[in-house]
Design a protein that fits this description.
With 413 residues, chain A is mainly α. Chain A has two domains: 57 residues; 315 residues, ABC transporter involved in vitamin B12 uptake, BtuC, CATH 1.10.3470. Chain A has a two-stranded antiparallel ribbon with strand order 1-2. A two-stranded antiparallel ribbon of chain A has the order 3-4. Chain A starts with a helix and ends with a helix. With 256 residues, chain B is α/β, with parallel strands linked by helices. The two termini of chain B are 37 Å apart. The longest helix of chain B is centred in the middle third of the chain and has 20 residues. Chain B has ten helices and ten strands. Chain B is 39% helix and 23% strand. Classes of the chains: A mainly alpha (413), B alpha/beta (256).
Chain lengths: 413, 256
Amino acid sequence: MQENIKSALIAAVLTAIMMLPIFGMHLEQEGLNLGLSYHWKWIVIACSAVFCAQLARPYVMKAFSGSSLLSLPALNPNQQRVAFGVLLVAALALAAFGSRADISIGQLAMIYIILALGLNIVVGFAGLLNLGYAGFYAIGGYTFALLNRDLGFGFWQSLPFAAGLAALFGLVLGFPVLRLRGDYLAIVTLGFGEIIRILARNLTDLTGGPDGISSIPKPTVFGYEMARRASEEGAQTFHQMMGWAYNTSHMEVYLYLIGIVFAIGAIAISVRLSRMPMGRALEAMREDEIACRSLGINPTGLKLAAFTLGAMFAGIAGSLFAARQGLVNPESFSFVESVFILVAVVVGGMGSLLGVIVGAILIVCLLSMGSDLAEYRMLYFGLILVVMMIWRPQGLLPVGRRHVEVAPGEVSS
Amino acid sequence: MSPKDVLHVSGLRMEFGGLVAVDGISFAVGPEEIFAIIGPNGAGKTTVFNCVSGFYKPTSGHVVFAGEAITGRSSHEVARRGIVRTFQNIRLFKNMTVLENLLVGQHQQVDNNFLSGLLALPRYRRMEREALAKALFWLDRVGLREFANRQAGTLAYGHQRRLEIARCMITDPRLLLLDEPAAGLNPQEKIDLQRMIDRLRRENHIAVLLIEHDMRLVMDVSDRILVMEYGRPIATDTPERIQKDERVIKAYLGED
């Protein structure tokens, strides 16, 4: 008990020290003078909250240990298949019955699913911590924007370039840095993400600086524009061809459906990857790199492939994002974006496809909650991570990976 | 040096900082020969292994494998040329199944192309089937077929040793390096191991380089033995003559 009180006191004092300069003192302007005003009330409330929480923590932990609430079992392959089906039906139902705002959130969810699946290849499959993933996302978005502005490329024309360029950057960055391990790799990738953002901000002639590039067109439907009027004289638009009345929400649904198709593609690639020789070798490499090398497997090559593939996913997601917003600017691809994607992967469960998808949806839901909550984003994201690491470090939905097996009849011969 | 030698090591020297771990080691391993390296603990046997298999880059000296200089090549390149090894402390992929361990071992042989795997092209599917069949074949040979679907880490210690050897053999090597394969095995398992090494040599036409402390096994199975002490060679000879060598006896039993 005494031990408890002591640690609770220490935690409370630390809280006070941390909060005092940030929340406790406010600069206030009185006429020409700047004055300091002190806000003790919140500090006292926070300190007592931390004190009580710390005091109660051992009992709470004891009460929760072994609880079934937070320890869902790993899903077996059949259950996973059902879960994928349910998710797909839900996604399509949203397209059919959702409001325009819902569908807009759905588009973002699909973009995040693609991003999270891409990062999952790097973090979950290859075990490389990448903190600059938003850099590749930015490359995808800016590639589409620039190709459109300067060369007049549409979404479908620039998509392969966006994916390819992001992959190329992944390859070029990965080549020198994948010799690094753990923390060092995380720092280099973090730096890369920031470099891309700052370049986008300062190469004003090319990227439009902080304002970014706007009036990016929406994707066409097999060459037919989805707009009220065709941009070229005499061309038919989609609604004219179909004989529908023009409705702007058609575009939203269309973008959302494209998102779903790409997300399914990302899932399919991830599933195949985990069963291919490359996926097997990646798993083996996570377990024992030295043993891999002794069998003739080149770990650097494998890591490079995973890194490049992950970057390619981000490039595609970036293009989709640019098409959805109609605008790219550096602030869309800041460091917190990398963090959000990483949180989606970690919360869902590294390496677990279903987990990562659920994680991405969860993150988008949290991000889309009312704007009054937006201020506290970092607070509750931090809280989620802390709680996850304490109770469920393997993620919400860890994998029951499908092993290669021989039929029982073949086991004894 | 005869041109038929599988492995030829000359003047091998390995320093770590100021410490000379291995110096002046030269030997040759002929085709289908079982060559053992013995010596007291810390004599530098495993360091020689690491130099041969590319895990260390020797300070000086030459390693020639099948007529090609491989000194200083990285370990995966050495492995691809046909030198594979086991480890003193077993290095299986413990969370993967026994079968999957053997599939990873065939990584250089199966269809690695990303697209053909993604699209499951016929060539890819055929090679995967062949890999599975080959894995089962080797499980039969080392007597582990009944454990095919088990996690490798849950196998008994002796079985893990055998699986590690099978994982090496499945890469179709020309030279097998075994680092203390009998450590931790019971007498019956040691006899089985000895038979297995001999069979692998005869039926798969491989040469074996062996580090082992169990003298009975070494004397029974080896064609020639290199004795090391303090990083330097004392003698290289047949088992019969090594057993009578004054210097070797002195190194093992100490002087009067």
